[in-house]
Design brief:
The chain is mainly α. Helix content is 57%, strand content 5%.
């Protein structure tokens, strides 16, 4: 005997949940590997950081130091980006100024403008934030702060500012090392740029 059976389902009074990851659609591409066509997706680089060992106090202390470093980098990093942008603009402008006297005047005027705009912000920075800024300037411009001052203001001015920096326990010649002592800073900057911090 053939026939149809009627089935009634439960009536849902709860509306379905929206997708928890809206807008995240991944397009798989076909890639030939050894004669076989396979789906493939490009994923972002992942950094694995080891678990901190030690007692609870030590771990808490390390977490506080990390949080403080994130805070200080968020304060200093935007200024390193400003330095890079201003330096690029200055180099473009200086390329069109043939006379040395006019070049010196341009640099002096630019320096006055930058001081007028950012001096108050720089004075509010802590010494730690200033040290980070020196390293981040090297990261962004591939030149130490000392070298930038020497190129644009001369060796005497660079030596003077290096002396001032030394009084505060820092070094304008300090270079950024993303694979060595500054690896954690680099990781934090990558996360800031990605909008994760």
């Amino acid at each position: 005997m053939s026939g149809t059976i009627g089935v009634s389902g439960q009536n849902d009074t709860i509306s379905p949940k929206p997708d928890t990851l809206p807008g995240r659609i991944y397009l798989l591409q076909k890639v030939d590997r050894n004669g076989e066509s396979l789906p493939e997706i490009e994923i972002k680089e992942v950094t694995v950081v080891g678990r901190q060992k030690g007692n609870a106090r030590k771990v808490q202390s390390q977490l506080r130091k990390y949080d403080r470093l994130v805070y200080n980098l968020k304060r200093a990093y935007p200024y390193a980006l400003i330095v890079r942008a201003r330096l690029e603009m200055a180099n473009e402008d200086l390329a069109g100024i043939p006379e040395e006297k006019d070049r010196r005047k341009y640099i002096k005027d630019l320096e006055k403008d930058v001081f007028a705009e950012y001096e108050d912000d720089m004075r509010r920075m802590t010494i730690t934030q200033g040290r980070l800024l020196i390293k981040l300037i090297d990261r962004e411009t591939q030149n130490t702060s000392y070298e930038l001052i020497r190129q644009y203001r001369g060796g005497l001015s660079a030596a003077f500012w290096q002396g001032v920096a030394r009084i505060f326990g820092t070094n304008l010649k300090e270079e950024y090392d993303p694979y060595g002592e500054d690896a954690l800073i680099e990781l934090i900057i990558i996360n800031i740029e990605a909008g994760l911090l």
